[in-house]
Amino acid sequence: MTGPVADVDLGCHLFRRLHEIGFDGRGMTRPSYGREENLAHALFMEVAAQYGLEMRRDWASNLYLTLPGRDRTLSVVMTGSHLDTVPCGGNFDGAAGAVAGLLVLCAWAKVGFRPERDTTLIVTRAEESVWFPLSYLGSRTAFGLLEPSALETPRSDDGLSLRHHMQDCGASPDLCGKAPVLDAAKIDCFVELHIEQGPVLLEADVPVGIVTGICGSTRYRSAVIHGQYAHSGATPRCFRSDAVMAGASMMTALHDAWIKAEAQGEEMTLTFGVCRTDETQGNFAAVAGRLELVIDIRSRDEALLERMNGLVIEQAFRVERDHHVRVELGPRTRSAPAVMDAALQADARTLAASLDIPFVSMASGAGHDAATFAMQGVPTEMLFVRNRNGSHNPDESMEMDDFMQGVRLLEHLLRKRAGSET
User: Which residues are registered as beta bridge partners of 124?
Assistant: First the structure.
């Protein structure tokens, strides 16, 4: 199969520039609605202008780069991802999908290919919810799903509101709930390329994954267990209110439930990514009076997520009783699971086989903007690219050969949906 060929040198240039923009001395830090995210968006606009792509921003400063189709009344084919990172993250999470989409549109423009329908790259804002505890913030704003009250949410690093950071980046938060937004009925499909953030493709020794679904989540980002500080030698066990032992008991019970769920053939993950005592008061010779922790549960099974959430609450009550502590779980945040489109999956498998690109079908344990599109009824698919050393860390390691295989599959899939007349 032939077609426009994406420019690997342009891809290397974009990744190199993104590294220069985001490097913090160890990894990548491009905060949501921050200077580095702005510079990354500006880089994409600079390249898009060189290739004659149409450019626009919505009220939340999501970026849209479009190669116009022959019939602009037809529903649009879309691809895209994000350019923000977690603190001290890697250079490929999110960026790989945005770069891939731009390479496809630039390759089409370079050879004069004009699709039957508009084909648009969306570069979303603020996908990484570590900065604002709001899942899929950019894609949700694009569909008009953000409540105006969320604009007062503080960013984790400086405490300034989402509204403030939006305004500082040239967005118009006062238009939240008023400005035109994406209409799912006018979108033919959405395809997001992304690095895999786990080891499945490495273990299978294949470069590409065709995604079947995206896990939802239930999370407690600011849970606190309050005990009572006491002398470690002078306080017998029966008189203790030990926050650490209460937390350990709660975490162990939830972990045991995870093991049981897996034994019954259910799929989920459970993570306690933060577990810490108060560094100013906790010490070697004291019973801990305070423990902070976060709870992150993910699954494609909504019923399992709700069952585990009920267990979190149940265990909180139990350790309060058994360990004489007080548990504040704090607000719960959540996202719903999303199923990828069967027809797009079938097309991707057929195209990969015809292009001699080895692949496996697999689920996504991480959340992505693609989930928002799918939940709005847009036919949606994700393509994963092999990546070593996981993600959300400086050691993400994607080979350009693997990436270009993913780009080649993305190009053929988008061209099939957009119309292939030249």
Answer: 82
Chain segment 58-105, per-residue pLDDT in tens: 999 999 999 999 999 999 999 999 999 999 999 999 999 999 999 999
For the stretch 281-307, what's the b/e string if a residue is b when 16 or more beta carbons lie within 10 angstroms of its beta carbon? ebeeeebbbbbbbbbbbbbbbeebbeb
Q: If you ran DSSP here, which 8-state letter would residue 98 be given?
A: H
Instruction: Find tokens 């899929």 and name the residue.
Output: 136
Does residue 164 lie within any of the structural domains?
Answer: yes
Q: Give the helix/strand (H/E) hosting 384.
A: strand 380-385
- Whether residue 192 is found in the same domain as residue 289: no
Identify the bridge partners of residue 246 per DSSP, sorted by sequence position: none
pTM attached to this predicted model = 0.86
CA dist 249 and 261 (Å) reads 19
Domain's final residue, options 305, 320, 335: 335
H/E stretch holding 416: helix 400-418
Domain that holds residue 155: 8-213+340-418
Record the tokens describing residue 245, joined without a space: 């032992």
Cβ atoms within 10 Å, residue 412:
24
User: Do the domain assignments include residue 1?
Assistant: no
